[in-house]
Amino acid sequence: MNQEDYNRRVLIKNTANHYVAFKAKITARDIVLTPMSKMPLEIAEILAQVYAGNMLFIGIDRRGSHAAIYIEDEATRIECNFEDREMKTVQEIVDKQAILDMFSIKTLAAFKKELPKKIITDIEKRLLREIIANGEVNDLNKAKAAAEYLGINL
Q: Which structural domain range is residue 8 located in?
């Protein structure tokens, strides 16, 4: 990236079903994202957040896995070392759609095996809980398995 790119704004997405907020590193302001919303943010600010270790961006492994905030610009994700074209690695994000897609797994056994691999963070657990509570899945056995994983009753 060249210097002019750092001032460019790219979309970031809050994958959580609640507000997330953080203090800007480059300017004196608070940045607040509403539940499951998108907003433009300067690449320089995104990189400052990543380099400062903001867990909302870097996720559970400092490479963006299971992060609450997803950077929609591929070049910025590559600059943050979240993805690599040569290695063909992509950032693992668990948003509402990823959770809903998980319910399309064919067998209950495979679904139960996938749950602890996919639903790791408290943010992901809260989102799964909301999906179940809102009746957004049509497989009662999988919904019960998910509720059991979360430690809640249906």
A: 3-79
Contacts of 27 (CB under 8 A, 6+ apart): 45
Q: Which of 79, 106, 134 is the last residue of a domain?
A: 79
Q: What is the pLDDT of residue 117?
A: 95
User: How many domains does the chain contain in total?
Assistant: 2
Q: What residue ranges of the chain have pLDDT lower than 50?
A: none
Burial letters 82-98, b for 16+ CB under 10 A, else e: bbeeeeeeebbbbbbee
Q: What is the pLDDT of residues 79-124, one digit of tens each?
A: 999 999 999 999 999 999 999 999 999 999 999 999 999 999 999 9
The answer on 72 and 17 residing in a single domain is yes
Structure tokens that stand for 36 in this block: 């499951």
Same domain flag for 145 and 117 = yes
